[in-house]
Design brief:
single chain, alpha+beta, 5-stranded antiparallel β-sheet, 4 helices, globular
């Protein structure tokens, strides 16, 4: 089943679809603190997170912005909305692509169980994230503001910059 049909979401950025086709079999530790998700894991994580926030909206409507989906991509929703497509995650933390319309359509943002998406976009696109990742793996830059990489025996090791 195509990825977009599995998640029930239209408007996926082309590079997200392409990225999902390419990264199957990528190393578990390709990203610091996050594992790349399979299409089935994307579906399950997204469905679960949307359900949790829908339940909260029903119980405490003042805690959830009912208009978050109508805001432009890159605008914090302070929750997890249907237009978020997680592609990496671990233990309640996700990196997702925001598929809402607007100039930041396709941006990559972090969701954390502690602060939801309040920090806003990390990268303007998957390709911008991958460029930063490639530069870091080549030993040229810090990734995601604090991570340094090294490769030993074909395994990526991430450590916090001191």
């Amino acid at each position: 089943m195509p990825t977009q049909e599995l998640t029930g979401t239209d408007g996926w950025p082309d590079e997200l679809v392409e990225f999902l086709k390419l990264y199957s079999g990528a190393p578990y530790r390709l990203l610091p603190l996050n594992a790349l998700l399979t299409v089935e894991q994307i579906h399950d994580a997204r469905r679960s997170m949307v359900k949790v926030w829908a339940g909260l909206a029903a119980e405490e409507p003042e805690m959830v912005d009912a208009n978050a989906s109508a805001q432009p991509a890159g605008t914090p929703a302070y929750s997890f909305i249907e237009e978020y497509i997680p592609f990496a995650g671990l233990d309640g933390y996700f990196w997702f692509v925001d598929t809402r319309p607007g100039p930041m359509h396709g941006c990559v943002t972090e969701y954390s169980r502690d602060s939801s998406d309040e920090d806003g976009p990390k990268w303007v696109s998957i390709s911008a994230m991958l460029t930063d990742l490639a530069d870091s793996l080549a030993g040229e830059t810090v990734f995601d503001r604090m991570w340094l990489s090294s490769v030993t025996d074909g395994e990526i090791d991430w450590r916090i910059r001191r």
